[in-house]
Amino acid sequence: MAAERRPRIVIVGGGFAGFHCARKLLKMAGSRFEIVLINTNDYFLYLPLLPQVAGGLLEPRRVAVSLAATLRGARLIIGQASAVDLDARTVTYTDPDGRRDQVSYDRLVLSAGSVNKLLPIPGLADHAHGFRGIPEALFLRDHLIRQIELAAATDDTAERDARLTFVVVGAGYTGTEVAAHGQILTSRVVKAQPRLAGQRCRWMLLDTAEHPLPGLAEHLSRTTTRVLSRRGMELEMKTSVHEAMADGVRLSDGRFIATQTLIWCVGVRPDPFLESLGLPTDKGRLVVDEYLNVTGHPEIFACGDAAAVPDLTMPGQVTAMTAQHAERHGKQAAKNIVASFGVGKKGPYKHHDLGFTVDLGGLAGAANPLQIPLAGPPAALVTAGYHLLALPANRVRVAADWILGGVSRQPVQLFAPSAPLETATPAVSAKTSTPAGS
Ligand SMILES: Cc1cc2nc3c(=O)[nH]c(=O)nc-3n(C[C@H](O)[C@H](O)[C@H](O)COP(=O)(O)OP(=O)(O)OC[C@H]3O[C@@H](n4cnc5c(N)ncnc54)[C@H](O)[C@@H]3O)c2cc1C
Asked: Which residue among 34, 66, 255, 303 is least enclosed by CB atoms within 10 Å?
């Protein structure tokens, strides 16, 4: 007698939402279902520690968690989903060799996350660098080191000053942490260059908001302002970029800043793949109910940055695009999928904010775990502890990098490929090696 086919659950996107959904499904009912995960890469990227990769503190492999090793029992398809046939219930994808194939599903989870948000600013796509994946982080680390080495090599003081000027746009948590770690890296690299003795790197952090970390608790913003200002970072609030050029940027207040480094961290937008599915969206995110079910399709679930999930703790709003929510969406979606096969009861997604942590590099940080305001080493400790707990693997290696990196770092360029700002798949970069604006 032929074995009965197990119901197949296909998950598109192995980030915070998709990874934790797959893991929960495996735990709850791994043998009952065939779980298929389609992801662009063979790893789950722990994005919150990516600024530390750009800052040369962590090796990139530390934040790339092997899907094969951590999701044993699931079938992994490395590729990019490009279409969903809602009637035939199939997903079409392209593998890394460019071959197209299809996989059918009984339940589908859409968790394709988000990509860089571009604004129609002249020159931006050509001269700014994004920050969304390992290629961008490695490119940025190399680029920062390269600017200092080139600054040390030139006798032209104008060129030297421009190369030692670094502009980050967007003072949300990503931009703030990238600027904080970038500044620590560049000050260390400068110290190793005798020709730059006494020379200071200029770091500017821009945002159109009144304070850094807009939307987060005031205490986080105040602490961040104090720490970064003390380090000499120029916090240019209510300011943005008017035009990006090969030799610098024109700010919204008319000033021209000569620089070779423009880092764009102005937020993200849902992956454009989602808009192409013909399902209802809200600002690019798939519309779902509180059970994470896509409207009109009980067999389709969506979670993470990809989904506009009603926030039951703040009626009328949807949950923010954070790892905290995405991970919990994924787990709740798994429970509701299992319930849709008659095991257990489905439940609504409801999660009260547990606070936020901001890593400012060194022993500095800002955090409000359970709304308790912390700054300095206690905040840095809580932040480190939180990441170690949240990382699904590599904890010992991360801790070892932190300890060793705190003692000594010898940053070198590895000539990572360029990472263009405009790309629908952040973790896959172009193969050219010339940095824009260099
Ligand atoms: C630099 C940075 C720092 C951050 N720091 C924090 C923080 O400290 N705290 C916090 O709460 N949040 C933080 N966030 C936000 C948080 O990481 C996101 O909200 C979270 O990753 C969303 O999870 P997700 O699963 O929806 O998407 P992602 O984690 O982005 O995962 C999406 C996955 O889908 C894959 N994918 C995309 N399209 C396709 C496709 N067509 N086919 C197959 N696979 C596809 C992608 O490659 C990726 O693996 C940070 C974000 C960034 C960029």
From this structure: 255
